[in-house]
Amino acid sequence: MDLKNINLMNDALFKAFMCHENNRELVVDFLHSVTKIEKEILRRGVFIGGEEIPKRRISTKKQMTDFTVNIENKQRIIIEMNQRKDTSTFDKNNLYAFSVIVELSHASMKQYPKVIVINLDNFNYFETDKPLLTFKIRDEEGHIESEMYESIHLVLANINNSKYNINKEIKKFASFLKERDLEKLAEEFRGDEKYMAIIRTVEDLTMDEELIGFYSYEEKIRQDKQELEYSKERIREEGLKEGLKQGMEQGAKQKAIETAKKMFSKNFAVEEIAEFTALSIEEIEKLREENKD
Length: 293
Fold this sequence. Notes:
This protein is an alpha/beta fold and 293 residues long. The protein is built from 10 helices and 6 strands, in the order αααβββαβββαααααα. A 6-stranded mixed beta sheet has the order 1-2-3-4-6-5, sandwiched between helices. Helix 4 links the parallel strand 3 (75-82) and strand 4. Helix 8 packs antiparallel against helix 9 (270-277). The longest helix has 57 residues, at 209-265. The radius of gyration is 30 Å and the shape is elongated.
């Protein structure tokens, strides 16, 4: 794996990074800053990379979260890395959350669950300049109906927007995820013992042969998808250009025909009409015959 092209948003590497024991305190600091849940509670949580979502039917397709923290008192934090734009991404993530809420509710009705979904948004789905967005179930007047569900979006592209006073732990974590060059990361975090240790952990992960296999496979799929989308876009662009060209040609042709018809009524000669409209003699003769009918 090229240390100058490390993609921590890659599914395999992201899960391995989040679940690594050496990174536990980093993840705890980040989650505390985002959710305000006490660090000690988070430390006691169970960290799972790729937890299967409870299925209500046997025939339902298996669905997996990117990363989950199971906390006491029926609380769950689901973290989803949304690397590429997909209009159905957040609908899928919400379904994950509600599936977990239903499952936890069935387990016991003595205490209601709470599920927090943290979306790491790499493509600014809502086209905002804010680094953090929070959603809850509200009515049209803004009243919160239930505390069982909360969705938080960390917009990675906006993490350095000086208009907003973003928590330093969130900012550092997001910056770390975005950077692909480990040497630049080492330079940026020089003197920060916690992050320097994390960088060494990422270096170790890049030498894990099994992980490299998953990483390379996923990156190949990603590149293939990008090339396919690029090809589709080129085809669409060429199609639009050709369609526009054809439309303009058809429009000009129709205008020439209408002009020729008017010139018939003024007794212009066929040659004069051809010169003025750029229609061929044959086209004008045929048009005149049709016009007689």
